[in-house]
Amino acid sequence: MKPTHIGTALAVGTLVMSAGAFQAAMAEDPHSISANIGVVSNYIWRGQTQTDNQPAVQGGLDYAHQSGFYAGTWLSNVDFGEGNETNYELDLYTGFGGSINDDFSYDLNLIYYAYPDGRDSDFSELGASATYKWLTAGIAYTFYGQADDAPGVANTEANYIQGDLYYHAALDFDLPYELGLNLHGGYYDFRYNDGGNDYGHWGASISREAGDFGTFSFNYDQIGRDTYDEDPKLWIGWNKEF
């Protein structure tokens, strides 16, 4: 799932989906299927709102194998502002994750972000990340994108762009009272517009599992470039896996 920045939330679409799917694969049954549902007061992805600062309902379905292979899909409503008729996002993903020892693990993934009722907005990424104890760092490479109307995009034969890079890192800590703290940041390096659209962002999340009631989080995110919305984003989230 792209955000689970309750998790995408603490993600951190990092793709918490990959971590969750890999953990599920560690069950005794070599095959496992899980589902998740969530509600957020603001769908934030890589520092930017995907719902025009409005709430979102999200959910997904995951398959995982004990070998580390996983695949799944994730859905959320979106709102990109006036003049854009896109109403929802559908992500399809697959990957492989594993661990070398108790302290070091890795994940490789392929994600397709689809906006079926939008115009030329779909894109695909290849991603890789590694986790050492409480530190996770990774990179995502856009190898396919439909961006006909993006400012500064060259009018290529197929009107596609590729080559964007997204770097991200996160720190995860256990706090007293069964709380979790996530500190995260990232930098988006776009291939087009001579760096005019590049930006960095950072944020923090505090979460707590509540048993059968799921996981609740309180989150802060902010972008560090004045060509975007620099206002701090404070939002809450809830997520439950089945």
Automatic annotation (TrEMBL):
InterPro entries: CHP02001. It comes from Thiocystis violascens (strain ATCC 17096 / DSM 198 / 6111) (Chromatium violascens). It holds the Pfam family Gcw_chp. It comes from the Bacteria. This is Uncharacterized protein. Residues 1-27 form the signal peptide. Keywords: Signal.
